[in-house]
Amino acid sequence: MSHDHAIRAAGLEQERRRGVWPSAVIDGERFYDETSERAQRSPIDGASLGEQKLAGPASVENAVAGAARAAHAWRSVPAPKRGELVRRIGDKVRARKQELGAIITLEAGKIVSEAEGEVQEWIDVTEFAVGLSRQLHGLTIVSERPDHRMMEQWHPLGVVGVITAFNFPMAVWAWNAMIGLVCGNALVWKPSEKTPLCALAVQRLVEEAIDEMPEAPVGLSQLVIGGREAGELLASDARVPLISATGSVAMGRAVAATVGARLGRSLLELGGNNAMIVTPSARLDLALRAIVFSAVGTAGQRCTTLRRVIVQADRDDEVVTALARAYQSLPIGDPRLTDTLVGPLIDEAAFDAMQRALDLAVEQGGTHVCGGERVREGVPADGFYVRPAIVRVPGNLPIVAQETFAPILYVMPYDELDEAISLHNGVPQGLSSAIFTDDLREAERFLSAAGSDCGIANVNIGTSGAEIGGAFGGEKDTGGGRESGSDAWRAYMRRATNTVNYGDSLPLAQGITFDV
């Protein structure tokens, strides 16, 4: 599918005005701010996708104001009716799965199956959210006072600000938005300026569903496409009680500081430096498949990408040899082709960061095994295609402890399981983790309080490809936030504890007497 065909199929052509994409969608109206522009290019081949206007302060202000008005009305709509809006959105996404996937491929460079898999995540979370709309429950609590009842209720927060990264330009927004909508909130979304077309395609679809439902106010979903300034303005706005931000650790620290200064809430999903332990009893055929998918999927640009493999010393050579063989045969190329497994990096800066990391790994004591070079033959010109790299390291070198958003896999040996767990936990990040073992004791130790310190800990599966039913997020520098499934919905609501006196007297708690 050509670039223009993908844009037309997604219904985006009418969004473009004289080659320029809108900087904001506020209450359903497109705005083309007279501020800075950003040249949009596809990572597939560097081809121009037009000029992107960037939202200025006025657009952020108007988007938040519009969302606040919508939230005021939406909070009183019964939650199952709010779920009906999300159901309608899900139906529309199903009908356009391929077209939406093609836009993800165009802008983020994902291979077709991964791009459509991301759209499927959106579909899955709509189903979860629709069911959740009838399960937003609190507790009934026993009171120490006679003829009293205590309970808790969960109420909408109001406006939720969502800041997303380029690597999952639809799914991460959907985790927040579908749950946020059934919880009774309105949304202001600042997507990555690297993937604005994905955001515009999403916005058009959501607007269709809103327009078809009289109970849904127009301003429920607002979009501002801007740079750092737009994110800072959104984070600093006291009308936005929750900011959900996905991106780098540095970005997360800035958001947390800004939101914390006004005593707001932040839900952070930041860097990952994910590891897998391969034990003596591991089934190597399964482990190798899990390693390769987790390490090279999305060209190593997932927050759950496997970056470290910790292998029992007796199997170290065997594992490295098998991985190097698999890496050399990986189909690298145009992500639109069905046999491609590794598409391009997002841009030249990502390629440069990969090269710096590989150089530092060797300088600090690592041994380069294979990969890392730019692939120029058999791929579209001007895209940054690389062969995934493997580096043997003695442990968590300084560069290993940093997250490089590229397909670099560091392999290190261990002798005893406690040493492996120590290596595993010995980095600042704590998102996803895995162990491959057929030993029940090893598996349970890894999952215990003395094992992995990550928010996600798996046994005999890889670190990436999480299902939406579980809460997604991590600890330490990953930010501590939880999105998507389980009880992550509570982050999008406020809790109210209620006490009801249905008797004829007024007893006080703790036995206090205060007669007047």
Structural commentary:
The protein is of the alpha/beta class. The chain contains 14 helices and 26 strands. Strands 3-2-10-9-8-11-12 form a seven-stranded mixed β-sheet, sandwiched between helices. A seven-stranded mixed β-sheet has the order 15-18-19-14-13-21-22, with helices on both faces. A three-stranded mixed β-sheet has the order 1-5-4, with no helix packed on it. Helix 4 (97-108) packs across helix 5, helix 5 packs parallel to helix 6 and helix 8 packs parallel to helix 9. It is globular and about 80 Å long. The model has no long low-confidence stretch (mean pLDDT 97).
Low-confidence stretches: none
Strand percentage, roughly? 15-25%
Which structural class do the helices and strands define? alpha/beta
Give the end-to-end Cα distance, rounded to a whole number of Å: 81 Å
Give the fraction of residues assigned to helices. Answer: 25-40%
Largest sheet: 7 strands, mixed
Mean pLDDT: 97
Count of separate DSSP helical elements: 14
Outline:
globular
Gyration radius (Cα, Å) is: 24 Å
Number of strands: 26
Give, in spatial order, the strands making up the sheet with the most strands: 3-2-10-9-8-11-12
